[in-house]
Amino acid sequence: MLLGIVKGNAVCTIKYPGTQGLKLLVVQPVNKHLQPLGGLQVAADTVHAGEGDLCVMVRAREAALALPDEKFVPVDLALVGIVDELEVKSDASFNLTLQRGWNPYS
């Protein structure tokens, strides 16, 4: 899961056909502890996020498929959810060993 914090808006005077009316936001990618990862990026907004919102992002082909009306547009990062609550558990609290029989991780 990719997380990012919205820092502001990006404005384009000329857009690729199919992306007119698409809201673009400047996003700071963060890790699960909300610490910055790399530089700022521009993402297409599909969830009406605002400045300061913690969002779930998708990249590559999934970003283009996340757009509600247009398909096959050159979008490489999209916001697909706004995080209401984030609970980070320690890695030791998960037992990912596959057991015989029914398994919740398969």
TrEMBL record:
Pfam families assigned: EutN_CcmL
Q: Does this UniProt record's set of keywords contain Cytoplasm?
A: no
- InterPro entries, A to Z: EutN_CcmL, EutN_CcmL_sf
Q: Where in the cell is it found?
A: Carboxysome
The UniProt keyword set, sorted, is: Bacterial microcompartment, Carboxysome
Xref: Gene3D superfamilies: EutN/Ccml (2.40.50.220)
- Write out the GO cellular component annotations: carboxysome
Query: Matching PANTHER family, A to Z?
Result: BACTERIAL MICROCOMPARTMENT SHELL VERTEX PROTEIN EUTN, ETHANOLAMINE UTILIZATION PROTEIN EUTN
Q: What is this protein called?
A: Ethanolamine utilization protein EutN
Organism, as annotated: Bellilinea caldifistulae
